[in-house]
Fold this sequence. Notes:
The protein is α+β, with helices and mostly antiparallel strands. The protein has two domains: about 1-100, 3-Layer(aba) Sandwich (Aminopeptidase), CATH 3.40.630.30; about 130-285, Gcn5-related N-acetyltransferase (GNAT) (Aminopeptidase, 3-Layer(aba) Sandwich). Helix content is about 30%, strand content about 35%. It is built from ten helices and 15 strands. The strands form two sheets. Strands 1, 2, 3, 4, 5, 6, 7, 10, 11, 12, 13, 14 and 15 form a 13-stranded mixed β-sheet that branches. A hairpin with a 2-residue loop joins strand 10 and strand 11 (about 205-210). The radius of gyration is 19 Å and the shape is globular. The model has no long low-confidence stretch (mean pLDDT about 95). The chain binds coenzyme A. Coenzyme A binds next to strand 4, helix 3 and helix 4.
Amino acid sequence: MAFRRAAEADKPAILAIAAQIWEGDDYLPDVIDDWLKPGPAQLIVATSGGRVAGLARYVAEFPGFAWLEGLRVDPAYQGQGIAKALTGRMVEMADEAGVEVTALSTYMDNTASQRVSAAFGFERAVGFAYCEGKLDAVKGHARASTRVVEVARDEAAAFIAASRGLAAGAGYLPHSWRFYPFARGPQIALARMERVLGIREGGRLAALLCLGDQTPHGAASRSIDCLEGEPEAVEELARHALTYAREEKYFEAMIPCEEGGAPPSLPALLKVGFEVWNEGKADVIVFERRRQGAR
Length: 295
Ligand SMILES: CC(C)(COP(=O)(O)OP(=O)(O)OC[C@H]1O[C@@H](n2cnc3c(N)ncnc32)[C@H](O)[C@@H]1OP(=O)(O)O)[C@@H](O)C(=O)NCCC(=O)NCCS
């Protein structure tokens, strides 16, 4: 088994693996060109006898923090410890870089992925409820509001830092299936959002919504992140956000719900045609590994 950074020439082998994952519904084909671009994030392939057997991506965008995603093993090579070896390599990269916290997300029933991460000391940090709005179901609920304004990133950062949702999400700001450690870089997280929209009442921000583009699921989806505030304003913002739908297949939102009572975003999203997979309870789980001695 050898590891190396993926190159353009690996694309066909990577796509051949993706075609066999989740009955061909893997999002990798949508993001692979982006993932192969040179940059600080590294797509690593594991090779066996020169053939690409598996892959995983290491993203170091925030100080002291690394995000792992895209773990895949060719079904022909599964069950031989390749995912563990790849994750071990990622953890080594994080340790070499002095990273304090390494994190990843996975669906609650992905036992294989959870066994792999548990072997390296990853522990559940927090859970979010996945909420999906298929275009056909939500488009009839879209309504542009003249009260919606673009919010300056500094003001948005202060609103999010004090929000109930951030606390309920253990400090993570969701962006589709990726979760940003907000306090480590509020502006890095907000720079990933296509729009930051709000509604003001009496001069203060009554509700905020971040609309994320280039989600981990590629152009086929668009995420509604950090929808929070007063219930009526939240619903108005959600309806407004739906007017940005174009040819996307669906919208997705992760609802922080660890502290019991779901925040107002969940009822608002259900009202505008979104559906949940687990009755609105946490089903997308963020796992963290802390370097020894790190807080
Ligand atoms: C998850 C995945 C990467 C695991 O790859 P792998 O190389 O077969 O995993 P390993 O051989 O390193 O096995 C690691 C552990 O997972 C367990 N495992 C593997 N496949 C499993 C399955 N289908 N169900 C339950 N456990 C499984 C193994 O028993 C082993 O656990 P153990 O050492 O405690 O016994 C692979 O199944 C895959 O590509 N799945 C689809 C994509 C995916 O789910 N990626 C993770 C997204 S977060």
